[in-house]
Amino acid sequence: MDFLTSLLVEYGALGLAGVAAGIIAGLLGVGGGIVMVPVMSVIFAAQGMEEAVILHVAVATSLAVIVPTGLSSALAHHRKGAVSGELLKLWAPSMVAASFLGGISAGFYSSLVMRLIFGVMAILIAVNSVVPIQKKLMAHLSDSAKTHRISAAVIGYISSLMGIGGGSLSVPTMAALGRKVHQAVGTSSALGVFIAVPGALGFVLSGWGVGGVPNYALGYIYLPAFLALAVGAILFAPLGAAIAHKLSGEWLKRVLTIYLLIVGVRMILKAIGG
């Protein structure tokens, strides 16, 4: 395969990943990062990018893509009346601060640590979707402003280190605190922007001047991959949102559970070398 063909295949795969991420973002209220980060990791390795920065670049680029994807998805959900202004006011401030801190602190973490964070959290998210561990742990907590703000900060920090919009964490958290699934999904899509913007900015600063980062990068954000992913993600996020509002709350829970289980299994297999 010559260089041009190889390039077309690789960026074509990124474009398709963007389409999948957009549909998933709208459907499940997630940013699509849990799809984009693994795909980018494989493609960047094939391109010969240095192992030490592959996951940092994948996570940072994913966060950058989530900004327009999240906006597209959030607008689609807002038109359906599924975005809660009350929850946005409660979650956004602490989520912004924690996400920025996550992007900045990523510069101090090795590639191994970043992979462990992504893998372990993906597995925990998948397990929580089958066995409602989080709901049991949070059952004694009140639906108070303090509970929401602390939850938002934890989710914001973890999500920025994973390159995700946080929906796979914030949706079950809101559900555990008694919010309806459609409202949780819609609000989560908007909150993904409040994770992605400060998180991406943190990765720009922490990756500035770092060796091994490819050309045409802004800090850790790899602009060619961002463009390839963003086009498909922006165009298809409204489709996912439209599908979400045609499903019942119970069906939406099942879709979310199946999706997270697939991701969890993939991460376990990768962790054990499968």
TrEMBL record:
InterPro entries: TM_pro_TauE-like (IPR002781). The chain crosses the membrane at residues 12-45, 52-71, 91-109, 116-134, 154-177, 189-208, 220-244, 256-273. It is a multi-pass membrane protein. The keyword Transmembrane applies. Keywords: Cell membrane, Membrane, Transmembrane, Transmembrane helix. It is found in: Cell membrane; Membrane. Belongs to the 4-toluene sulfonate uptake permease (TSUP) (TC 2.A.102) family. This is Probable membrane transporter protein. It comes from Maritalea mediterranea. The lineage of its organism: Bacteria, Pseudomonadati, Pseudomonadota, Alphaproteobacteria, Hyphomicrobiales.
